[in-house]
């Protein structure tokens, strides 16, 4: 069992994971990027801006000094995806021991390279064993010990059993998989579709429209995800359809809320300026559209969300763009075409 756990990133998810893993009575170090957050975590034991209503237990030590986190046998990386490369670079520069097992809990796809988080970690910290955690896990519920399930993935099977033991807690059920790409692709791509589901909510379009959109989103997630190296069955699991459902339907989802605000008439710039928390669907829409073009995969929902976010396309035009596509069979004979 891991004895020294460090969590890099004290946003909502990093903080919820600290509360969860502290139940094992293990020492947990929680690193915050923002000095104000560190101050509050240390002095008040709370994180009101990112995860209101929780209190850190005594075995969680908050720090703003990354060097304090290096003495760890298990390190969870939970920064926003756009900061992961920078965080890994800092850990490498500080000499993170190569024995430390790294678990990426971040959901995203890098701009221009199209790399998943595990690929960035392996590039910068090539000697550390790497795993990922994904699934339908809103921090707000996990922190309140409302039951949830997630999936741990690694290419190294020997990592999975000890990780599963650490993450198996009374209110958290951890599954395992060797499809590291598929798990991360589900977790990254669903955020784009949750923005679309939110637009549908913002338009008050009704339950039929949203169910239709989310179902076609699953087909698109699979087309793109399989072309990028994920396995078909993984997209029917917790990190695929499971996370797609929770993010498209939950009142907690930041991505769904971004879409809802777009549907109600706010601009992408207005929304981003007023949002402190990360909505990964915004950067991922650009990365995924870049990848879809490169691989020649038809990705109409991704394209419409990308156009709304990056090309000032009005959301109602995006919606009509999707409804007005040429008729086609429901199942894709050629998985590249939508
Ligand atoms: N919140 C959830 O329910 C949840 C659940 C599963 C996965 N995730 C994923 O976890 C990742 C983090 O999300 P979150 O919800 O914890 O974020 P958040 O929006 O709650 O907080 C973002 C955090 O990132 C920090 N940050 C900003 N710039 C940084 C930088 N350059 N370097 C390091 N840290 C920086 C901020 O200070 C803040 O603490 C995302 O990829 C998200 O998709 C979130
Ligand atoms: O609040 P969101 O939209 O960032 O989603 C958080 C998690 O990824 C849900 O599993």
UniProtKB/TrEMBL annotation:
One biological process GO term for this chain?
Answer: carbohydrate metabolic process
Which residues does the annotation say bind substrate? Answer: 107, 254-255
What are the residue boundaries of the Glycerol-3-phosphate dehydrogenase NAD-dependent C-terminal domain, all occurrences included? 179-319
Q: Its pathway?
A: Membrane lipid metabolism; glycerophospholipid metabolism
Which residues take part in binding NAD(+)?
A: 9-14, 139, 254
Question: What does the UniProt entry say about where the protein is found?
Answer: Cytoplasm
Binding residues annotated for sn-glycerol 3-phosphate, in chain numbering:
107, 135, 190, 243, 253-255
Reaction(s) catalysed by this chain, per the record, are: sn-glycerol 3-phosphate + NADP(+) = dihydroxyacetone phosphate + NADPH + H(+); sn-glycerol 3-phosphate + NAD(+) = dihydroxyacetone phosphate + NADH + H(+)
Kindly provide the name given to this protein in its UniProt entry: Glycerol-3-phosphate dehydrogenase [NAD(P)+]
Write the lineage as a comma-separated list: Bacteria, Pseudomonadati, Verrucomicrobiota, Terrimicrobiia, Terrimicrobiales
């Amino acid at each position: 069992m891991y004895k020294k756990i460090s969590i890099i990133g004290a946003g909502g998810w990093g903080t919820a994971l600290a509360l969860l893993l502290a139940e094992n009575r293990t020492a947990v170090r929680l690193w915050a990027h923002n000095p104000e957050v560190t101050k509050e975590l240390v002095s008040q034991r709370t994180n009101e801006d990112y995860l209101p209503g929780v209190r850190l237990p005594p075995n969680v030590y908050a720090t703003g000094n990354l060097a304090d986190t290096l003495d760890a046998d298990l390190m969870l990386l939970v920064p926003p995806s756009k900061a992961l490369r920078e965080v890994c670079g800092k850990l490498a520069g500080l000499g993170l021991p190569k024995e430390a097992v790294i678990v990426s809990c971040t959901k995203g796809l890098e701009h221009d390279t199209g790399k998943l988080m595990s690929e960035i970690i392996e590039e910068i910290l090539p000697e550390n064993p790497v795993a990922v955690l994904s699934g339908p896990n809103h921090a707000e519920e996990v922190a309140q010990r409302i039951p949830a399930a997630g999936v741990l993935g690694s290419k190294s099977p020997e990592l999975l059993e000890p990780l599963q033991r650490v993450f198996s807690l009374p209110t958290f059920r951890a599954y395992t998989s060797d499809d590291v790409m598929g798990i991360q692709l589900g977790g990254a791509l669903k955020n784009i579709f949750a923005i679309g589901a939110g637009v549908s909510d913002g338009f008050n379009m009704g339950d039929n429209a949203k169910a239709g959109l989310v179902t076609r989103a699953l087909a698109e997630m699979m087309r793109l995800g399989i072309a990028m190296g994920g396995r078909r069955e993984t997209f029917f699991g917790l990190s695929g359809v499971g996370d797609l459902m929770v993010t498209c339907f939950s009142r907690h989802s930041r991505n769904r809320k971004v879409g809802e605000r777009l549907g109600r008439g706010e601009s992408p710039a207005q929304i981003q300026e007023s949002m402190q928390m990360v909505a990964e669907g915004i950067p991922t829409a650009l990365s995924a559209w870049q990848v879809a073009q490169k691989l020649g995969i038809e990705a109409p929902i991704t394209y419409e969300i990308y156009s709304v976010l990056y090309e000032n396309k009005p959301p109602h035009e995006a919606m009509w763009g999707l409804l007005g596509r040429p008729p086609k069979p429901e199942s894709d004979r050629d998985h590249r075409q939508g």
